[in-house]
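Weekly puzzle thread! Below is a chain. First person to post its structure in token form gets bragging rights.
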Amino acid sequence: MRAGTEHEERFRRVYDSHFDSLLTYALRRVEQPADAADVVAETFLIAWRRDRELPAGDAAKLWLYGVARKVLANHHRGGVRRQQLGERMRQRLRVATAPDPGHEVPERLTVRAALAQLAEIDREVLMLTFWEGLEPRETAEVLGISATVARARLSRARARFRDLMAPAGQVLGMKEGK
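Winning reply:
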């Protein structure tokens, strides 16, 4: 019985540490806030079931992003709604205060339109790096690619994004050194 208690405590720590960042991640990738709650609920349900696969320490965050990415892909592909933990997540969603870096950009709709024109992988590399604050090596781990490939994709995605934003006269301050 003690192993069950340790499992619960570990899960609670992971949940408390990463809930807000995963919710923000999901909110940026779905149309409806309720869908984001479903994605996060499914992600944590998978983490609960696969406790032995869940890495310790900081690696848990990247593992959870990887799981959330796959759940989002299933969500978009099949349109399946998750209900098991949905109501609890929706209540938490109402009080979530995670800031959206998109609010800092004066022309948010222009940015979103430019992002929508990018290929999915370009959009995901940019969003993981700039909105989720991941380093290229962390982005690589979430996407299941090498760090070298992630850096190359990030560089190309930045260039494509700049080209799309240039006609609108937007400046985003993307630093090359990241």
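Puzzle host: Confirmed. Bonus trivia for everyone else. Helices lie at 2-27, 33-49, 59-78, 86-95, 108-117, 120-131, 136-143, 147-165.
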